[in-house]
Design goal:
The structure holds two protein chains of two kinds.
Chain A: H1 2-25, H2 31-44, E1 47-61, E2 70-83, E3 88-97, E4 101-114, E5 117-125, H3 148-151, E6 158-168, E7 173-180, E8 184-186, E9 216-223, E10 229-239, E11 241-242, H4 253-261, E12 265-277, E13 280-292, H5 294-301, E14 308-319, E15 329-344, E16 356-369, E17 372-383, E18 390-400
Parallel strand pairs in A: 8-11
Antiparallel strand pairs in A: 1-2, 1-18, 2-3, 3-4, 4-5, 5-6, 6-7, 7-9, 9-10, 10-12, 12-13, 13-14, 14-15, 15-16, 16-17, 17-18
Helix pairs in contact in A: 1-2
Chain B: H1 2-9, H2 21-37, E1 41-50, E2 53-60, E3 65-75, E4 80-87, E5 93-100, H3 112-115, H4 117-120, H5 139-157
Antiparallel strand pairs in B: 1-2, 2-3, 3-4, 4-5
Classes of the chains: A mainly beta, B alpha+beta.
Chain lengths: ~400, ~170
Amino acid sequence: MWLKLITMKRLIYSFFISVAALSVFGQQDNSPQNLASTLISNTAQKLNIGGYAQVDMTSQLQSGKRSNASLDVSRMVISMGYRFSDKTQFLTEVEFEHVKELYVEQAFLNHTFNDALSFRAGLMLIPMGIINEYHEPTAFNGVLRPMVDNTIVPTTWREIGAGFTGRFQDIGLKYQVYLVNGFSSYGSDGKGTLNGSGYLRNGRQRGAKSFLSAPNLSAKLDYFGIMGLKIGLAGYFGDTQSALFNNLDKSDGALTARADSSIVGIAMVGLDARYSWKGFQARGQIIYAKQSNSSAYNSFTHGDLGSAVTGYYIEESYNAFRLTSSSHQLNVFCRFEHYDTHLEVEPGTSRQDKFSVNEYVFGLGWKPAEGAVFKVDARMRKSKADSSFTTYLNAGIGVWF
Amino acid sequence: MIRLLIILLGFGGVSATPDQPFWAAYNKQVTKELTVWSDIFNKAEHIKTTDTREFYRILSRSGETAGTLVLTSAQGRFERFDLMVVIDPAGKISLIRILKYRSEYGSEVTNKKWLAQFYTKPDSTFALHKNIDAISGATYSSHGLIDEINFIMDQMTDFPGSAATLR
């Protein structure tokens, strides 16, 4: 239906531009049609529709136990880009998660002054690590996203904000600097949201009736000047948001102290790298974050948030079909991951081994066409508190168009 | 529509071929790239426009054909991007430059070293993951670019008046 509408829209554009060019200037040869089609392909193709989807099956293998597998349409996303002019564009992604949950994943307006400077505002992805910005299922190996990009970087991490981005093509540098809304650490329901098991994940406001006490700074530098290599350095700094700051009487010391106990300061840095060479692809990232005020926060919310967390992974893959005549890809990969949400804790919080987790993943991704992938993998997970590995077998499909 | 009028009336830039939209839009940029590409470059002479592609003969100071210039565009994930391709008289690509990259996604495709992969290949057909290495963050744009280059190279063999067939 949409595609039909777009095709019709293009035809109408094409017709009017051609007629205008022919009637006003009466040019000979084929130049009016060429002009029209050139203009259409470059400027009048205003609406672009795309999407991605991921359907997964995960099952847990335990000796002596029988478990049910889980089957899920993890996400089904429709993305749209609308170009108002050569320099002004709106981009959005509307997402169904687990069939029943509806989210808006991105919705921002971008105005480009020149290559080096664009201003954008709206609901935006926070640039941290690899997956949060490139989260389409064909862009990563494995049925599920890496654990570090789930637990430490709470993918898909997006908030409302504004800022600048740009690139310097000649030296291969891209930057992003945004002021964005932060995590909600204490909601109006009187509960703390940040803890040792989920870390920041439950504090994401996702632009849904979100509230702001103090904006956070998010920035990333990407360097892609060396062929095959992409390196990113990201930083995220600021205090979390708390419902207790709403209508707070500044002269009331007790209430102010209470509100101050309901927030933490987050300073997160991330370094990521991707390198591809003749069918080999290596990628890795390391994230480290410190939380200030976690002692006061934990005693106020009866929580167990760590004062420092870390997570890293390294992955290697090879396209086994590279040297064949097939246009398909068969990516064989392995990945090692580690994260610890209790790398450090402040006095009053007991450090828990179960939050320090290692995972090995081995798998295959068969891409019969670019943008379409069938995946299988095995994951072996073990926390410091476990005596043995738990194995998961996963399978799934991913598409991106 | 104003832009269309400007282009049709030839106010889009001073050049030997003011009615060609790509040339009008990128006259200075293309001239600069060609000057850097070869110090014998004198001018580009419009040969033909097919669909949305503009073909030019590159002339040296002594009046000899130094290659063929193609101004065209390719499809990225959300946006098209404009590029120039120079094919030498032997039919080999000797320069690719992205003239305008509109999208925030996939700008890695502008990497000059990555683009240089096309220069040395004797193949007539290019394929990602085969004779062209993948580029992180620009899968769609690199596919769009490869499709466009393959199309142009196909055109070169049966394109009368092109430098490649004049060798």
